[in-house]
């Protein structure tokens, strides 16, 4: 879907001659590259708000359950490792910085730096997913799955406990703890899928960057993929305290 | 005056040699299947949604046939559950939601704006293929075990039934993307593709209504996406967010579902209202009354529509306080809707009303939509809703709005823009006859359902007490007549393709831009850049017998214009 | 209503603001500092204020990312408007649903307790 948005900006090779010279990247139905850029940008922002609304459903589920069943959240958060979460937050912030720098490189026609920054962004994204994989596999072994498959294995429960002072208070497991993990997997899972989609888009941009498609006159796809990537980062900025830092 | 002249089957056709247009500029399968021309995409959409309408209509006829007798007539209860679910799902997701925006919006939006195409032509084509993909999933669900949840997919039934909920959900999810792409495209097109002289308040009201529709499509549809994603996860994995057995909350599902599906009701009706605003003005030969109010009321309906979803949940276990708040907010939607109806009536007041086929449909719309809207007040009020909830009263109410409103307006648009789309005029006699049939048969079908519902006939039931039989039989007869009338309308149009006389550029004397290019338009819509004035300045057009259509009035012909516009 | 967003058709493309490397790195540094602050804050016993504390910091971070990384500070006002708009509607959705769920929760709890007995 993202490719679709951005790909349109590339448009068909303008064959007709308009009053002004029609650059290669300008689609036939636009008058100017500014009009094309503004259309793409507005379209991208509209796409981003559909993402916001999409995630708002999950945030809504989170808010409802946290306000109606706070004990579940206080009990369950101790199975999440705040240090891994914080590390992942920093990794994603680094990828956001390199993405922003990549956009700037494209704007200033520094094609080599563009390739470097995009590669770095991809690496950070891969690190994020690897850490996520470590977290998931640990929970998988501990039986900490969504409500339907929730079967905590004794002994694993406190493996991650970073703050021992709380653990004593919550030894009795409240009812329906599985719902927390359902929400946890839904939020982080969908976020992870968006990371994968973003990586796909970055790879597409990277290939075109290596080919030398982008310069100060035409860098819209880099800009739009960047916007998407920052949005994915934004969502994580909220997920981190909501899931990992509950007291 | 003009109707008579138009109807004469004289050979005085447009003598200009038929120029190249969007229909004949290229040939072959791929010239359609891979086209980025918004007009061809609109035609593909039109044919596809009409196919879906036929399918949904067949389900409707099957439902009505089953209800002929109080006991089993033609199918068992299980099949009946599948049939009404598929009728609802196909009609809602495959027909009504895409119908007007995707077919008529796509066809006329860029032309009305004076643009060459929508902002993202490839995305437009992708939107069509997503529709096809979603439709295939829905059809697959029919084949692979059917669907018996009702079109609303309510949990916990949808998580326990063994019909193919997952396949259908994936289909609807994909259709949602198709709808988002259309809306996104339209918003961007209206913002960035307008020529400088086309200010917001020179846009025809159909475009305002499409803008409002697109806002809803972009903001609400993703919530349907997440709802269905969670539903699929619920069934496939048992995540339990909506399942009370696992600590989940089924009322939450209804909040999620109606946060989309109530605004979706306005996705269906707003563009319909836009078409009516165009037609009423043109065939009353008067500028639309209160242009700005009609324009703003579209936006107001779109925004207020997000605040009232809880009125679908009065009996669901929702809290009393929310029920009161949602009920109060619900009545606020009637204000902008009322503004529209009164402005249409005021437009017709002292106008020179011409009863062409589109105008007949538009008048039917006002009548049927008003009944549908007013009966909505009974359902928005808490006390009466407890009695009427989930009865045939609700069924009649939303059919009056959705079918009497959206479908009738869709057909009005079909007859209004048909000459522009195909370059052919149809027979007004048969067109009007079809319209009369649709109007009469529609009331025959659905008015008895108000009575049934008020007397306690619940919806979605397969058997009923014998005292309801008369009303059910009237309704079933009406449904068959309605089907027949729709076929009359269809044959009128199909006949015109072969026998209709060539359409002039402006057969109706409308002043909006789509009538200032040839019928059918050239590939890039205009031979030379058009210039728009007021889209409702109908005095600028004068009937020219040589063209058998309208053309711009020359300054010396503008005798009474100042007097007229002063009224 | 949206007049300010009408795009004049001009011949040349001079797209948008190019941020300085310094501003991007400074934004990044503040984001990292805020992450550390929120992590530290979670070890304090803030009680019910904790959620507001961490959400407040997350919102500041989100605004920083939007303004500087996503260039909203120099973007067209309409793009800012639609973001604010979508957040408002998400808030309506979450807010009204929460109000309702909290209001009917007592009924559910009474029922569940009676079932458990």
> Ranges of chain A with pLDDT <50 over ≥5 residues?
1-20, 158-170
Q: What is the CATH class designation of chain B?
A: Mainly Alpha
In what order do the strands lie side by side in the largest sheet of chain B? 1-2
**Oligomeric composition of the shown chains:** heterotrimer
Structural class of chain B: mainly alpha
SSE run of chain B: HHHHHHHHHHHHHHHHEEH
- Which bin fits the share of residues in helices of chain A? 55-70%
So, CATH architecture of chain B?
Up-down Bundle
Shape of chain A: elongated
H/E series of chain A: HHHHHHHH
Mean pLDDT of chain B: 91
The DSSP helix count of chain A reads: 8
- CATH names the topology of chain B as Cytochrome C Oxidase, Chain A
What is the β-strand count of chain B? 2
Provide structural commentary.
The complex is a heterotrimer of chains A (247), B (567) and C (117). Residues 1-20 and 158-170 of chain A have low confidence and may be disordered. Chain A is mostly helical and 247 residues long. Chain A has a domain at 51-147 and 175-247: Cytochrome c oxidase, subunit III, four-helix bundle (Four Helix Bundle (Hemerythrin (Met), subunit A), Up-down Bundle), CATH 1.20.120.80. Chain A has helices at 2-10, 33-68, 70-76, 82-107, 111-141, 164-167, 178-211, 220-244. Chain B is an all-alpha fold and 567 residues long. Chain B has a single domain (34-566), classed as Up-down Bundle (Cytochrome C Oxidase, Chain A). Helices cover 65% and strands 1% of the residues of chain B. Chain B contains 17 helices and two strands. Mean pLDDT of chain B is 91; it is low at 1-17 and 561-567. Chain C is mainly α and 117 residues long.
Summary tags:
heterotrimer, A: 247 residues, mainly alpha, Four Helix Bundle (Hemerythrin (Met), subunit A), 70% helix, 0% strand, disordered N terminus, C: 117 residues
Helix-strand layout with pairing:
The complex is a heterotrimer of chains A (247), B (567) and C (117).
Chain A: H1 2-10, H2 33-68, H3 70-76, H4 82-107, H5 111-141, H6 164-167, H7 178-211, H8 220-244
Chain B: H1 2-7, H2 29-33, H3 38-66, H4 77-113, H5 121-143, H6 157-160, H7 165-192, H8 205-236, H9 250-283, H10 291-304, H11 320-348, H12 357-380, H13 382-388, H14 392-422, H15 428-454, H16 469-499, E1 541-544, E2 549-552, H17 561-566
Antiparallel strand pairs in B: 1-2
Chain C: H1 21-41, H2 49-69, H3 77-116
Helix pairs in contact in C: 1-2
